[in-house]
Specification:
mainly alpha; Arc Repressor Mutant, subunit A; 2 domains
Length: 145
Amino acid sequence: MEELYIKYYKELYLYAFSLCKDYHLAQDLTSDTFFKAYLSLKDDCPVKYWLFRVCKNLYFDYLRHNKEYSTDIILKETSTIIDTTLDKIIKSEDRKYLYNLILELNEPYKEILILYYFCGFSLKEISQMKNITEGAAKQNYSGLE
């Protein structure tokens, strides 16, 4: 489990943060995802895919239970913490700038680009993860170029 944490923590945290734009919630989602992995991960499961799927499902569960959630208020309150955390995870200023620009995009562009550029998924893996055709993933990816 420690190996999984070391290997996927940064990518999973960046993905969680891209979903919620909340430093504390992203940390909670990331740790809850690894906790679920510890409890129920099977050997024959594609680990990385499963972790990201669980993280997104946990986020949706959170939204269902907290309808008054506002990312704008929380984002303003924690902007210093966010910058510090992103500095630790994303070392390059260019990549940090790109990450922040991607966060401003609408779905499905935002999620596909985060998964592709920051989480190391191929377009084929993203299409399987999002249950869309590879052509649709490519179209959403290339629609921004």
